[in-house]
Design brief:
137 residues, 7-stranded antiparallel β-sheet, 26% helix, globular, START-like_dom_sf
Length: 137
């Protein structure tokens, strides 16, 4: 059983708006990367149990890239998304309303080959990009 890591943020937007930014490919490409020297040039998302997603992440200088992809296990609109990555690791994302804002809590199975702190920092950086992008809409 792999270790679980949780990252979280609070976005100063209503939950339906946050959900839309999180799940719509036209938004995902603007926030789904951990640092300014990476991009997400392509995103596909079939948001339903059994549906698949695939997000392409690439270094701006062309030195590397990978696909982040998997299958949805549970979709409870504006509340919860559960998915399994192609390597079998599971992730749960919870959305909860807090006054006029939305708290996001993302818990994922750690990758055994990467230091835990590096994984946590990378996923948190993507979540921070999401917050900045979505609050700017």
């Amino acid at each position: 059983m792999s270790e679980k890591i949780t990252v979280e943020t609070q976005v100063e937007k209503d939950t339906p708006s946050v959900w839309n930014s999180w799940t719509s490919p036209e938004h995902i490409i603007h926030w789904n990367f951990a640092s300014h020297d990476w991009i997400c040039p392509h995103a596909e998302n079939n948001l339903k149990p059994g549906g698949r997603f695939s997000y392409r992440m690439e270094a701006k200088d062309g030195s590397g890239g990978f696909d982040f992809s998997g299958e949805y296990l549970l979709v409870d609109v504006n509340k919860t998304i559960e998915f399994s990555l192609d390597d079998g690791r599971k992730t749960t994302v919870r959305f909860s309303s807090v006054d006029d804002a939305t708290k996001i809590e993302e818990t994922f199975d750690a990758d055994k080959s990467t230091p835990l702190e590096m994984q946590k920092n990378g996923w948190q950086a993507i979540l921070d990009n999401f917050k900045k992008y979505t609050e700017g809409l």
